């Protein structure tokens, strides 16, 4: 599954693991622009997981577990071009 908004692509795939009988998903956020992206926020209204999500995500990917993938959409971000 892929969501694309402006220069941001959010892809998700199952890891092959299950947590509490729910498939585990890996979500990856990719900046397709040559400019730096900062202050990216994801709309997470209704997001559920039975697995703790690491709070200090630094590599722009995280893993969660739920019956279906969640349609993350970035409502805002800043592009910094020099």
TrEMBL record:
Q: Which Pfam families match?
A: TPD1_C (PF24068)
Keywords annotated in UniProt: Signal
Q: Which residues form the Sema domain?
A: 1-82
Q: Which GO terms describe its biological process?
A: cell fate determination
From the Swiss-Prot or TrEMBL record, give the protein name. TPD1 protein-like protein 1-like
């Amino acid at each position: 599954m892929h969501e694309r908004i402006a220069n941001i692509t959010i892809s998700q795939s199952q890891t092959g693991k299950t947590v509490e009988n729910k498939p585990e998903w890996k979500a990856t956020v990719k900046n397709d622009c040559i400019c730096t992206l900062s202050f990216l926020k994801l709309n997470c209204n209704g997001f559920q997981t039975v697995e703790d999500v690491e709070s200090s995500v630094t590599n722009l990917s995280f893993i969660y577990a739920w019956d279906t993938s969640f349609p993350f959409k970035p409502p805002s971000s800043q592009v910094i071009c020099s």
